[in-house]
Structure formats: C-alpha cells, structure tokens
Amino acid sequence: MNFLKRVLGSSPKQDLISIPSGRLYLSRSHSSVKGYSECIFKDAVAVIRRTTTEFHYQLVIQRAYEEGEEQLEDEDDDENIDEYGFLIDQALHFRTAISKENFTFFVWRDLSGDPDDSFEFVCDESTDQAIIREFYQVAIQCQYERKYSKSFKLATEEDLTEFVYTEPVQSPPSPESTSLPSHSSVPATPEKKSKVSLIPPSTPGVPSHTLPEKYTVKSILGSDSAELHLFDSLNGTFLLQDELVKATVKDLGCWEYWLDITGPSKTWLGFIVAPEINPVFNYEHLSFIFNYYSDDGSASSWLLRFENADLLEHFQETLMRALWESLNQTSWGKAKDDDRDYVLSAFNDLTIEDAIEEEEEEEEEEEEEEDAEIIERGNAEESYDEDEDYDDELGNKQFSNGEGKNNQLAVGYKHDRSFVVRGNKIGVFKHTPSNQLEFSTTIENLKTPDGKLFSPAKVMLHAEDSTMILQNPNNKNSLYNMDLEYGKIVDEWKINDDIPITSFTPSKKFSQMTSEPTFVGISDNSLFRVDPRLSGNKMVNAEHQSYATKSAFSAVATTDLGHLAVASSKGDIRLYDRLGIRAKTQLPALGEAIIGLDVSADGHWILATCKTYLLLIDATIKEGKYAGQLGFQRAFGKDNKPRPRCLQLSPEHVAQMQSETKAPLAFTQGHFNAGIDSKETTIVSSSGPYVITWNLKQILKGDKISYTIKRYGDKITADNFKFGSDNNVIIALPDDVGMVSKKSFKKPTRESIATPVKIYRG
Question: What is the CATH number of the domain that holds 236?
Fold first, then answer.
C-alpha cells in the first residue's frame, strides 16, 4: 500500500496544530430527507490555522489524496470541494467524544444547515491521544481569543471552561466502513464549489457594524443588490459569504456618507465612506473590491459581485459621488460631465483572478532566473539566506546616533552622493562602484546665519550639487543656502515678506546639474521664480502668477523644457508652459490631497502621490487640432481629457500588509527613475515598512499586478532611485540608510508581504 499523500492548500507557516488522518462526516437531523450521515471525505486532515485577522482562527478540513488519486479525481470532476473551513467561534459548539467502537471524534454545528445538523471528524485509530487532547485544547483557546480579542495566555483555567460544550452526541459510523448507515440510500456528493467560494456561505466574517446613534440618515443615495465575498489570504481566493446583500449608500449630512452591506438575516458591514477603503471597480468581473477596518485596526478585503454592468455602474456612481463629495465638500452635481467621467475612470484598472497560485509559481521561477543572471554578471549586491536570523541593517548606522530620525533624502545628480536629513544634521553618503552606500561624513548643527539651530523641513540640491537649499519650518518666508564643500549655511534668501513658501523645485528637470542660479517656488495660492542674485527679496515679480482664491498648492515639478505641473491639497493639477501666465490645463481632483509630484523629462507623464494611491497621467493630447502636443502647451478638449491611471495596491494585498503591521496605507512621494539618457521605466514609493516599485510597461499593458515589493523591519521614511538608471533604489529608514538592487524586489505574495528581508554582505 502506498502511503504517500498530498494535502491541497496546506500552509504550514499558519498552521497551529493538525491531526494527520481521519474522516469527515456530515450528520443531518432525523427530519432531513437525506438521512442521518454522509461521508464527505474518506481520507482527510484536520488543521487549526491562523487567519489574517488577529485573534481569529479557522478549523480547516482538507481532503487528502494518495499518490495518483488526485489526478483520477480531477479527470472525473474538477469542481469537487477539496477543503472546508470554519471560523472557530463559540457558536460552533465544538466538542470531542468517544464512539462505541472506541474511536475519538470531534463534533461541531453545521451553521448553514438545520439546527441539529453537525459535522464530525473521526480520528484515525493510530492518532496519538496526546495530539487529540492538544488539538481540542487549542480549539478552546482560539474560541477564547476570538470572543475577548486577547491572548489565551491571560486566561485562567476557569475562564477557558466557558468554551467547553458538554451536550451528548450520537456516535458516527465506524471509520473501518466506507458504507453509510442502512437508512441512507446512497453516498451524497459534496456540493459543487463556485469559482470563489470554498467556505459555506454562513461562515461569519468580521463583527457586524451598524450605524452609530450619533448619526442621522438624511437620505439614501442608492441601494444595489450583489453577492458578498471575503478574501482569504491563505487560499488566495475570495470566499462567498452571502448570495444576496444590499449595498446602500446613506447621506448623513455635513458631507459624510455611510455604506451599509446587509443580508436577509444580518448586517455584514457598515462604515464611513473614505479613501482608506481603497475602492477598485472591475467591469470584466462585474465586481467592486474594497478594504474594511475592524475596531482593532485590522484590515480585511471584501468583494461585491453584481449581476450585470448596469448595476455595477449605478453603484459606482453612487459610491464615488459620496467619496468625492466627502473630500471636496461640494455637490457632485456641480462638477462638469467630463470631470465626473475623469473621476470615475480612474478606479477601473484592476482585474481579478480567482486563484493566484500558478501565477506566483511562474513569477518565482522568473525571479530565480533573474537572480542567477545577476550572479553570472557578478553584480549580486545582496544575498538571502532563509536560515539566517533577520538583520535589518543596511550597513550605515554610523549616522544614527543623536536626536531625531532620518526623515528626508536628497539624491545627487552631478556627483555620486546622497544626503539624509536627521534632525539638525545631514549625513553624506558616497555611492560606491558596487552600488552600495558608504558613509562619508556628517554636517552637524545646522544653524541660521544668526546662529539659531533648526531642523530642515525641505531640502534641495542646487548648482551642480555644490550647494543645498534648506527651509526652516519656523521661517517659511526665507530659504537658506548651504555650501556643501564647507558644510555651512552661508546665506539667507528672503523670498517675500508676505508670501510663505510651500515647496520649491529646479527651474528645469536637470537644472541642478548646471550652474543655473534660479529655481521655482510655490505658495498656497501662487507660483513664482526665485533668483538669489536679486537684491532684497528674491522673488521675480515678472514671473509671479497669483490666484485670488485659495488654491491650496502643495507640490510642484518641472520638465526638461521648464514646463511646470502644480498640484494642490484639493487634488487638482494645473499645467503651465511657463511662469507668469495662466495654466493651459487644469485636471480635476479625484478627491485626495496630492502630497508629491513628479514629471517625466519630456513632459509625457505626470506622477501625483496621494495618501492611498499614486496617479499616473498621460499629458499628451490624443485627438483634434493639437494632437501630439502636451497639456502643458495646449488645453485638452472638453471631451478629450486624459484618462488617469490610479496606481493602487490590490485590496487583498493591503489587507495582508495591514494585518501584518497594523499601519494604515500612507505612501511616500513617488518618483520616476531619472537620468539624462535614461527613459522613465519604473516608479518607486513606499508605505510603512514596504518599498514598492511599479513597472511602467506593465501598467500600460494593463497587467493586474504591475508592482513588486520589499519589506523591511521598520518604517521607510524616504526613497528614490540612484540617478542614471532604475536598477538601484536608495532607502532611508529611521535609523539606517542603504542602496538596494531592484532585482531583489519580489512580487507580492503571502510570504513576501509577511517576511522582512534578510540582508548581509557576502
């Protein structure tokens, strides 16, 4: 007899304990026409497994196959269920008993059946009784943690007895027999599984949330019917929770909106509509995917699947109206038709696959080939050893002593240097030929010319990387000029007595590689040129464009020709061909504030960073009289605005990341790779301990996952590419800084999201 078996979907890293062999029965009440007992799996494994939500665990029963049997099963019917999962909750009445044949078995309620229906897992006679007792004890502990949201280690033995269910059970069939009791005519065939559901629809998800009493519903914006699915990161699938729910958007007044998702017998979810839900609409699969946050901060990823495109379109417009109005504090009806289309089209990029296992395997093979190629070229900067303890050192902690944390990064264009701001000092790091960072020196005690210490709020390299411009957060009407050769601030440049500076950037994309003295600045409602050669105030009045209303400008970037893109905390973007005149193009706000802006050298691409997504915009006019020109030079036609691409992390990846770190999604400023002779091919940003790169070619092809990630053991405070290529990324952590190869980034999987990188010098 061949004892080689394979269990489908096993995940040892998440498994707490397992019973390696047994049988699964479904015992029905005597009133059922299907009889008393059905054998579901004649050979199975029972596992208690962690979920992605803290203090929540699953009891998983997996079908086991003998060698070759799986292939035969697939030939007969490739839709049979291979796994059942049950959230371990007190409502299951989970207990253990001994059959009259002296076999030990576990029993729990079938929550989707009649009140007396139950599942029974009969342990193989060879199972060690110590394992069985431990399995039962772990199930008790899991119930305690789910109910009280704290570790069972804080419980007394008396506390745990609350979860001991003692109701007597009827003995199941003997495992020695494959036949059913005489009153059951034929073995029942397990229900066919849908493409997204592996768990009975009644399995609880997260605690229900109803509208708090402090809110009053003013009106209903819309209500649509859909299926509700929950993402299970262990299996990489969306699991059907309810076949029919109502998704209702409610107006609470004062620009606040509430989304209720309610089934026939319960309210599944309820929450304020906000950008953090990470909305994604997919018309290919008629689906809306979003994130939900429990009271403890843990995230889960959910999916609403609609019957047809009209229902999805109606729901999308309802939800996006609520989100847009809550962020813009103005009526959706006042927006122009083309502006509304611009907003709605931004969130339609993601496609869905029901399973990701094969894709992950292919990607891992590609990555292994890439790694081998790097080694063959002799350019392997980093090595990874699964047996080594994790070490998050990037190798540059010489700069980490003293007060403050690393918080800003300036990468040199003219010279191979990077500069890291830490409190009132700046660390200088040399780029080595082997693409690493080598600590060079520290510029200590940053002081204004009158001797006052300060910690810069913003910095920018200038004049062939020979000087650095710094802003004192306590004096926003001036900027300071530091001579990097001497490591000393030598000038204070008063910009304007009445205009505080919000941000500043080089006059052209690569001006800092030249001796160009001027640069561009913005305030809350104006943009202007700064010329340090002027006497008195340094603002060039002839190149100053001011707006009467509050524009809330927040970021600015320039192209190689000096065209300007200016973004606001309202979320809109203005494009100018030069300073001192009105914008040629104004792109409407999606809603979120723009915190960072970058532009490709040729002006073709605009990259705007918001808290929960990055926005990629093609600035080329596609049709009409000015086709081929840029929105910097000519206005887009009324019906010819560019379609923005919203670079989001998939909601299921966000849920996995936040279950690991408990940190909300918050991107650092995104950057294109930059170089005089380099084409922009890659984008880099980070959120929490994850640094992320997007492949521009894959984005334009519409690939589902166009990004790779790398996790560190601490929050990433700043990141950017080394100048000249996209092969190396410079990363600043609170107490460390280093350069890493882009080849070391991985496609997002359960493992790459959960495991901080292991780095050591070989």
Answer: 2.30.29.30
CA distance 346 to 171: 58
| Most confident of the following: 146-160, 208-222, 339-353 | 146-160
Which pLDDT does position 233 carry in this prediction? 66
Half-sphere exposure of 91 (CA within 13 A, CB side): 11
Mean pLDDT of the region 641-664 = 85
Q: How far apart are CA 153 and CA 661, in angstroms?
A: 22
Model confidence at 168, in pLDDT bands (50, 70, 90)? Answer: low
pLDDT tens-digit series, residues 249-294? 999 999 999 999 999 988 899 999 998 888 888 888 899 989 898 7
b/e sequence 433-445, b meaning 16+ C-beta within 10 Å: eeebbebeebbee
214 versus 688: the higher-pLDDT residue is 688
Our count of domains for the chain comes to 3
Q: What is the 8-class DSSP label of residue 106?
A: E
Same domain for 654 and 514? yes
Q: Are 2 and 67 in contact (CB under 8 A)?
A: yes
Q: Annotate 498-554 with three-state secondary structure.
A: CCCCCEEEECCCCHHHCCCCCEEEECCCEEEEECCCCCCCCEEEEEEEECCCCCCEE
Closest Cα partner for 357 from 87, 82, 4?
82
Q: How confident is the model at residue 232 (pLDDT cuts 50, 70, 90)?
A: confident
Most distant pair of Cα atoms in the chain: their distance: 103
Instruction: Give the structural domain span for 491.
Output: 383-754
Same domain, 334 and 407: no
Other residues' Cβ atoms within 10 Å of the Cβ of residue 308: 8
The contacts of residue 130 (CB under 8 Å, 6+ apart) are: none
Bridge partners of 98, per DSSP, are: 104
pLDDT greater than 60 at residue 12: no
Q: 389 and 322 share a domain?
A: no
**CB atoms near residue 506 (< 10 Å):** 22
Cα distance between the two ends of the chain: 48
Helix, strand, coil % in the chain, rounded to nearest 5? 15, 35, 50
The mean-pLDDT minimum among 13-17, 274-278, 593-597, 646-650 falls in 13-17
Task: Give dist(CA 427, CA 457) in Å, integer.
Answer: 15
